[in-house]
């Protein structure tokens, strides 16, 4: 059984969630005025290794306003589903109306896969992700570095360009990245609405990023 996820410190949690809390204000302002707005749909991209553990630590700070939560992970990821189900089971004990979905997509790039073949598999993953993203139509997308987040975010960007649905992309670079961004980070740095790093060296190299210190 997975050990319980340690909570973030109060200051770190507030700083991390500030962008996420400000975004709904802008979104809800465009919705029906004078009436209670529905919760915000959140799409979460999980990944193998420590990515899923880190992203669940971030989610543990979110209120019940972020619902439903749609999780997407690679079809070759054998660990994320169990971690997510365990997390959501505990969350349901706190919020009775907690809702979530699980979806798999083809992995865009395997470890040590050649760059040429990666282009082909990424395009295939984008084609697979687009109808799924269209169906979910999330208000927010939260990701932290797995290669799976690239096709998902590109699909969301295409939905926005087509005028179908504008999703806010929040990218949190993994704590493991101290001086250089991950490949996913290097790509999504230019497309995300909020790009959060956890080391000052990355903030110096990438001025658009937001440095909050260690948050996971």
Automatic annotation (TrEMBL):
Coiled-coil residues: none
Annotated keywords: Endoplasmic reticulum, Membrane, Transmembrane, Transmembrane helix
A single MF term (Gene Ontology): N-acetylglucosaminyldiphosphodolichol N-acetylglucosaminyltransferase activity
Lineage: Eukaryota, Metazoa, Chordata, Craniata, Vertebrata
TM segment ranges: 12-29, 114-133, 145-164
Bilayer topology: Single-pass membrane protein
Family: Belongs to the ALG14 family.
Localization in the cell: Endoplasmic reticulum membrane
Main location: endoplasmic reticulum
UniProt xrefs under Pfam families: Alg14 (PF08660)
UniProt cross-references to NCBIfam families, sorted A to Z: PssD (NF041549)
Quaternary structure, from the entry: Forms with ALG13 the active heterodimeric UDP-N-acetylglucosamine transferase complex.
Record carries keyword Membrane: yes
Protein name per Swiss-Prot or TrEMBL: UDP-N-acetylglucosamine transferase subunit ALG14
One GO CC annotation: UDP-N-acetylglucosamine transferase complex
Family annotation (InterPro entries): Oligosacch_biosynth_Alg14 (IPR013969)
Gene Ontology process terms (BP): dolichol-linked oligosaccharide biosynthetic process
Gene3D superfamilies named in the record: Glycogen Phosphorylase B
Domain of life: Eukaryota
